[in-house]
Amino acid sequence: TATGVGFTRIMIPDPVNGGKMPGYVFYPSTRAKGYTWQGPYKLKATENARPVPGAKQLVVISHGHGGSDLSHHDLATYLASHGFVVGTLTHPKDNYINNSGNGHVDVEIGRPIQVSATITYLLNSPQWKALIDPNRIGVAGFSAGGHTVLMLVGAIPHFARLISYCKAHRGDKVICDVEKRLKVEAAKHGKSIAQAMSVLQHSLHRWGNTDDPRVKAAFVMAPFSLVFDKAGLSHVNRPEFLYYGQDAQELRPKYNVLHIAPLLKALFGIKMIPKAGHYVFLSPCSPKLTKEAPGICKDPPGVNRVAVHRKINATAMKFFRETLKDRR
């Protein structure tokens, strides 16, 4: 049975850039039944409502490129209303205010480190640690966040794959415009794109291991995953669930989600949303947000984002309940 949901803003230490990352914690509460507006987001939760006591499963959500700690608020509140604690964060240099780090080490390798830092923060916090079972932790991620959470369960990217992909798929503007920009930046420093990717590759352990053994399961939505190959996925030994939109143009399913699916030996399940584009995984938009950002809010004819999210959220809950069982 669903309960009310409380939420609290948090500031998480960022081991990658220094400073703090804003985020939220959502949790079950007996008190809360209403809605709260946070900017253009209508949250089905009440700020600082009293939590239901007892240790619960924790899920941390990683947003996509240019997103925020509220990009997936409906998934967060849904899971919280069904007994989970959910943490979110805004990734520095890869959010809607500042996305200057796209393609660079502090984002491509820093992101999973930041999710791990969020887990550590919550487990060490006097306010939250009693509400979390440290043996039952999962992650969810969308797009670049999908890439992030795959790394947290052991996937190792091979960044040179970006170069070979763009040689073969020049028409893929979204991916290959980034590659083009990185090429120009590398040239300014007297390097080739291959050398720049090699530097990125050799930085994999700059902040420690990107694989976090505390993470037991990953719910992966429309991931940026063309940089993973068979060898890089051979270490993934925890269950993942893959979800994607059939007609996504930003990250073509054939070269991303469908490319990795047969290579994952612990794949729990995969689901496709017919006719849907890439952004269908973002929370259904308020009228205010739809006006400000129609590109990420409007879906193709025949796709009802509210109905789609009922399925996504229920699937995520079922997946995490199954994979984060108390097995002690």
Explained architecture:
The chain is an alpha/beta fold and about 325 residues long. It contains twelve helices and eleven strands. Strand 1 and strand 2 form a beta hairpin. The protein starts with a strand and ends in a 5-residue tail after the last helix. The mean pLDDT is about 95.
List descriptors.
alpha/beta, nine-stranded mixed sheet, 11 strands, two-stranded antiparallel sheet, 33% helix
The residue-averaged pLDDT reads 96
SSE run: EEEEEEHEHHEHHHHEHEHEHHH
Outline, from the CA principal axes?
globular
DSSP strand (E) fraction? 15-25%
Largest sheet: number of strands, sense, barrel closure: 9 strands, mixed
* Backbone CA Rg: 19 Å
Could you estimate the helical fraction of the residues in percent? 25-40%
Give the number of DSSP strands.
Answer: 11
Low-confidence stretches: none
Strand order of the largest sheet: 5-1-2-7-6-8-9-10-11
Structural class: alpha/beta
Distance between the termini: 25 Å
Summed up, the helix count is 12
Could you give a quick summary of the protein structure above?
With 328 residues, the protein is of the alpha/beta class. 33% of the residues lie in helices and 22% in strands.
List the helices and strands and how they pair.
Blueprint: E1 4-13, E2 20-29, E3 36-38, E4 41-43, E5 46-47, E6 56-62, H1 73-81, E7 85-89, H2 105-108, H3 110-124, E8 132-142, H4 144-152, H5 161-168, H6 173-188, H7 193-202, E9 215-221, H8 230-233, E10 240-245, H9 257-260, E11 267-273, H10 287-292, H11 294-297, H12 305-323
Parallel strand pairs: 1-5, 6-7, 6-8, 8-9, 9-10, 10-11
Antiparallel strand pairs: 1-2, 2-7, 3-4
Helix pairs in contact: 1-12, 3-4
